[in-house]
Design a protein that fits this description.
Low-confidence stretches: 3-25, 224-235
Mean pLDDT: 82
Shape: globular
Number of helices: 3
Strand order of the largest sheet: 1-5-4-3-2
Structural class: alpha+beta
Helix content: 10-25%
Largest sheet: 5 strands, antiparallel
Strand content: 25-35%
Number of strands: 9
Length: about 240
């Protein structure tokens, strides 16, 4: 008669064999000490940023001052350069040159634009793109001002019911890519990891009457062996 210890060992071996299916029990290996799980440690708990003052919230929707009302229900036919000029001038005055609402260099960059419809060859304002982002059949204006070879001020403008032109999205960043699909505006930016780019997805919020961040994800860059790293360390190509 087998001892209780032998019977226990046989039962454990049978259990392991059943768990492993067709695998050999002797082939099971321990992964070792996986370490101790620790709760996140909050840093600087007592320090909180001050809330933005009135009109000092970056990206908030606002009527662009200094512009006549649009003659139609959409941004079609509105001069994109005139809108950007008025918006940048107003934002600069609003933040007192602190850079909270717009890069302080933006006004100087706009000085490179001539009175030509497209602003001339040295104008840093990108050609405007018309696209219905609100889903109401009316086109909004998407454009950007390139502050330098890296940073840009992305802007989206819409016509309100009373004809006033409003800025519905303001975003400063490194625009590796800007894409539109249906009512979505996706902004691709490099991260500190050259394998990934961050993708910010903006959609229309009818209550706030602005384009609000809907989703923030990471997109893996394809491995491009024959393409050297760019200045920002990214290998992504769109």
């Amino acid at each position: 008669m087998r001892s209780p210890r032998v019977l226990a060992g046989t039962a454990i071996a049978a259990l392991l064999a059943a768990t492993a299916g067709c695998a050999d029990v002797e082939g099971l290996e321990s992964e070792g000490d996986l370490g101790t799980v620790h709760a996140p440690q909050s840093l600087w708990k007592s320090i909180r940023p001050a809330p933005p003052g009135d009109g000092q919230q970056p990206g908030a929707a606002a009527v662009v001052r200094g512009l006549p009302k649009a003659t139609g229900p959409s941004m079609r036919g509105v001069n994109a350069l005139d809108v950007v000029r008025a918006d940048i001038t107003s934002a600069t005055a609003g933040d007192g040159g602190t850079g909270r609402l717009v890069d302080p260099r933006a006004v100087q960059r706009l000085a490179l634009c001539t009175q030509a419809v497209d602003g001339g060859p040295d104008c840093p304002v990108r050609p405007g793109v018309l696209h219905d982002l609100t889903g109401d059949g009316k086109e909004e204006l998407i454009t950007a001002l390139d502050v330098d070879g890296r940073v840009s001020e992305l802007r989206v403008y819409a016509v309100r019911d009373d004809g006033a032109i409003a800025r519905v999205l303001a975003r400063r960043g490194v625009l590796e890519g800007v894409e539109v699909a249906a009512a979505h505006l996706a902004v691709r930016e490099p991260t500190s990891n050259p394998k990934y780019v961050s993708v910010s997805d903006y959609v229309w919020d009818p209550k706030a009457r602005s384009m609000n961040l809907s989703q923030l994800t990471l997109d893996e860059c394809p491995a491009l062996r024959d393409v050297p790293l760019s200045g920002d360390g990214s290998r992504c190509a769109r």
